[in-house]
Amino acid sequence: MVYRLLLSAFRKNRLAMVGAVLILLFTVVAVIGPWIVPHDPIEQNYRALLLPPSGEHLMGTDHLGRDVFSRVISGTRLAFLIGIGVVLLEGAIGTMLGAIAGFLGGAVDNILMRLVDTMLAIPAMVLAIVISGTFGGGIGPLIFTITIVSWTHFARLMRGEVLAESGRVYVEAARAIGASRTRILLRHILPNTISTAIVFSTLEIPWAILFSAGLSFLGVGVAPPTPEWGSIIANGRSYVTSAWWIATFPGLTMMLVVLGFNFLGDGLRDAFDPRLTRRT
Questions:
Q1: Residue 214 to residues 66, 145, 207, 222, 226: CA-CA distances in angstroms?
Q2: Rounded to two decimals, what is the model's pTM?
Q3: Residue 273 needs a FRET pair 20 to 30 A away by CA distance; which of 9, 39, 103, 137 works?
């Protein structure tokens, strides 16, 4: 019954449905991408340099003759892998530390929150460049790098949620009947904060995708010739006037993915909180 009400509230939000369709479409592309690309995304063809969009090359070719459409499609899988991987890791770390800080309070809360404040005081991009430069390129190091600079997002959110839930009547009732701290946290408080974590995750995934693209644009992300949206845009910045398609199409694709996740997140937030449900 509850799930039907959530689904009904979600369907009433037209932008949320648009976001869900966009994310579903790009998810399918990410899954079947290797089987639908018309050309090898890393194969260089010096007889097809900087060709404009055509029937053979839907998004044109770059300065090395590589098919931009194939590279954008291949980059979709990489972007989703990075975004979901980062959110799973930072969600696990941030949720655990934030929940412990909010539930135990006192010295534990002060120590963990001062650590969070210290991490937030350091510019995320600068810290990411240092960490990425230390561990080198690659998908694994990139996910690790972004997780290190972003786990504080979940930690602060979950600390606040746990603090709010700790004062609820049902928590006091659990304490009154002798439930242990661990049981109260795991069986009562955390399940009631899961909706907030889900909504926040849909907003963190596009942030992670944009952040990884920014690192690749600066040359410290995924190493070439791996097709990644940020590196594709970086390659096309020198040809903006003569070959606009190199940077434009991956940029538009990234914009649609980010919009889709944002619309989806807004719809989930409204569905989980009836007070925010829009009547459309």
A1: 22, 13, 10, 11, 15
A2: 0.89
A3: 103
